[in-house]
Amino acid sequence: MLSRSAPLFRPLCTRSAVSRPIVQSAFVRSYKVVSRKTPPPPPPSENVTPSRNALPKDGESTPPQSPANVFSELDVMSGVPTPGSAVETVAENGFVLSNGTRWNDGSGAMLLHNEAFKWRAAERSSEIEHKALKTGILELPDTVWGILEVIHPKPELLIVGTGNKSLMLSVKDRNRLTELGIRMDVMDTSNAAAQYNLLSTERSGMEIAAALLVYGFGKRK
């Protein structure tokens, strides 16, 4: 049993035995509320050109915008640089690229990893062309896909341009590309070049590749 006279808790500090009178401060701070008036806005300058995005005032009509300006503002890819391997011109016997490279010797183009290579997959007036025009199916030699076997990383999509006409790619060639893990999109060379330019700008040049025959391939003389 604890004694009632013994306190349960002892204070951490004891007051001094000397009592001091409590002195109240004779100084009281006073605050004066000062009302501040908001200065009026400056008058509009006559030399300032209003923004074209500013809302019209009541009774005013906005001038019509040119359709060319409207579409240029909506073009979100206008500031994206064009890859050096983009195709500027599709010629009958060659190509002109955006980096200034050009040839007109009948060679096709293999656009891979933002680089351009001459691609002699099929000659004009060859047995491959005659068979393709007769059957509507383009069958190429196995050796033309050799670069895709050694390149790393391999592209996810290969755009195949079949020349002047849109031809089907043979089952043998499709199986070869599928075994390499590459998807393909087959169309005529003009549309294939435009498709490559668009996709290589939107996505990485490592993911998109193109194998283009010259535009004159399959063109009847």
From TrEMBL:
Segments carrying the region annotation (Disordered) are 31-68
Q: Which superkingdom heads the taxonomic lineage of this protein's source?
A: Eukaryota
Q: Name its GO BP terms in alphabetical order.
A: mitochondrial respiratory chain complex I assembly
Family annotation (Pfam families): DUF498
Example of a GO cellular component annotation carried by this entry:
mitochondrial inner membrane
Q: What is the protein named?
A: NADH dehydrogenase [ubiquinone] 1 alpha subcomplex assembly factor 3
